[in-house]
Design a protein that fits this description.
The protein is mostly helical. The protein has 9 helices and no strands.
Length: 199
């Protein structure tokens, strides 16, 4: 409701409402970009691009969906467009974690694995998941981020991606299968999931 009130203030000409609205969501936009592209500099650029698009297209927000859902959709589109255009296949290194106290997307996905593991095993799994995620298609990585790190439900993801719920479920199933396959290839030592070089 606070977001909606701020949007109404903006459309009524209250310029000061922009600072409040963008300030509420700037960190979330950056963190989502970082989880998708795994590179801090690129994430900063994409977050800036996203905020510019929000300013440019605020009149298109009709209030039927939550503002955060509309914001995630724009963020995803900006990131996926860049990933597709540049065919980026990089990911975060273990020592390039968010500094805001949040957990990396790979660690969160790894944390869903059953069984108690030692910290050494957990670190190795996180490393392997990061490498495997770096080999996935951008769309597969995106749906894993939305479901397994942002913890969004199927309806929210469907709204963000503008696809039916059934499509979300099938894409998520395929993404998890691709991640498992990539992890198995990595563990078998065939080298197909080697860490991509940073540009």
């Amino acid at each position: 409701m606070q977001d909606l009130a701020l949007v109404r203030s903006i459309t009524s000409g209250e310029a000061g409402a922009w600072r409040l609205l963008l300030g509420r969501h700037q960190a979330n936009v950056y963190n989502l970009c970082l989880k998708l592209v795994g590179n801090r500099d690129l994430a900063e650029d994409l977050a800036q691009d996203t905020l510019v698009k929000i300013v440019q297209h605020i009149a298109r927000f009709d209030g039927r969906a939550k503002f955060s859902t509309w914001l995630y959709r724009i963020t995803m589109n900006v990131c996926l467009s860049r990933l597709r255009a540049e065919k980026v296949r990089r990911h975060s290194s273990l020592d390039d974690q968010p500094r805001d106290g949040t957990t990396s997307h790979a660690a969160m996905i790894a944390g869903r694995e059953p069984g108690a593991m030692s910290s050494v095993q957990s670190a190795e799994l996180s490393r392997n998941v990061l490498s495997a995620l770096g080999t996935l298609e951008p769309e597969q990585r995106a749906i894993l981020v939305l479901r397994d790190t942002r913890d969004l439900d199927y309806d929210q993801i469907a709204e963000i991606l503008d696809v039916p719920v059934g499509t979300v479920k099938s894409r998520l199933f395929r993404a998890r299968a691709a991640l498992r396959t990539a992890l198995e290839q990595l563990e078998s030592g065939d080298g197909s999931c080697a860490e991509p070089e940073n540009p």
